[in-house]
Amino acid sequence: MPIPEDVTGEEIDKDVRQELQSLPKTLADDVARNLVMVARLIDEDPEGAYGYSRVALRLASRVAAVREAAGFAAYANQKYAEALAEFRAARRMTGTVDLWPVMADCERGLGRPEKALDMAGAPEVHKLDKAGQVEMRLVAAGARRDMGQLDAAIVTLQSPELASSSVQPWTARLRYAYGDALLAAGRADEAREWFAKAVEADRDGSTDASDRLAELDGVEFVDALDEEEADEAPEGAEASAGPDAAAEAEAEADAESDAEQD
User: Fold this and answer.
1) What does DSSP assign to residue 57?
2) What gap in Å lies between CA 136 and CA 102, rounded to an integer?
3) What's the rounded Cα separation, in Å, for the pair 233 and 191?
4) Which of 44, 75, 79, 179 has the greatest CB tally within 10 Å of its CB?
């Protein structure tokens, strides 16, 4: 797959670069450039990111960072079985538990919420950092909702992190998930409060909390382009307004003709 000339491979994280040092330099550079493309495209062009991840995987399947990148690219394309296999491989190579929450979410994607809940209660969760524990809580709440346990999902999200007034990288998503769970349970007033709190914390637009809040407030957005097109409608556009308008115009023309003849 073609890679833009401005992508050198030096853009990748230094830890990943260090992993790639086990490869011959030319090969390491090729893998690095493909990994850069995965990171660059994964949000806006998941299919493209997946393609580059497969190239990197073909070149260096024994590098944990490559297996992890391949896992996230597959995950972004909802290829959950493939993603889970890659995450498991990366975990075996590194021995870390960082991927535990996303592995559990893959189980959800495969229609196994019970397995995701088992993972949420596993000893590995205690080894996660705070961000990982919050992510695991989000996955567990999602699994509860998959099983139709709305009240349990709400309780799962209730935590010191949710109650905290400080804003952390996970705050907006946690508040949003709580608001969404409340809304699903029919508690619209409480949901509105938490969507509003999510908006306050969402500094990088990671959620659509503002849109959800507007929906609850009954605000309708009008596309400015549609309004401009309506204002710029060509003369005679009324002729296409429908059969009633056409008949009315014809009747007026007949009346004017009769008046002239008289």
Assistant:
1) H
2) 8
3) 42
4) 179
